[in-house]
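From the shared-data thread, chain only:
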Amino acid sequence: MSTLPPTRRLRLRPRRGSRRGAAAVEFAVCLPILVVIVFASIEACSMIFLKQALQTAAYEAVRVAIDPNGSMDAVMARAHDMLDQRKVQGGSANVSPANLQQLAPGTRVTVTVHAPIAPNRVISQWFFSSGQLSASCVMAKEGS
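Structure, as tokens:
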């Protein structure tokens, strides 16, 4: 048994309402952090999707470019078609070297696809600054 007087024992017991206030304070502190983490995850996934879409467009375009009958118009059409399918805004493609018809078999062909970040964001200017993402793919020209 306790040797404390009865009034002293009553003061040591926690009050029922005191924990509710602590939970409200913890929620108020943690909620903004959780919201930022959720929005940052959404934006990061959006940029990963954009980078993957650019890589896919570059790959598909260079496959057209290395074909013995491939033309610059067909390469650009394929790149823009892939970007349109993935709803990438403001994308462009570059092919190097540009004279696809005169290339010898085995010559490396590079297709680089660019897209600006700003029009392809989900959340405006919170996590990624303005800029551009790009992806390249290199393959050897096929013989006829």
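The helical segments are 6-12, 18-65, 72-85.
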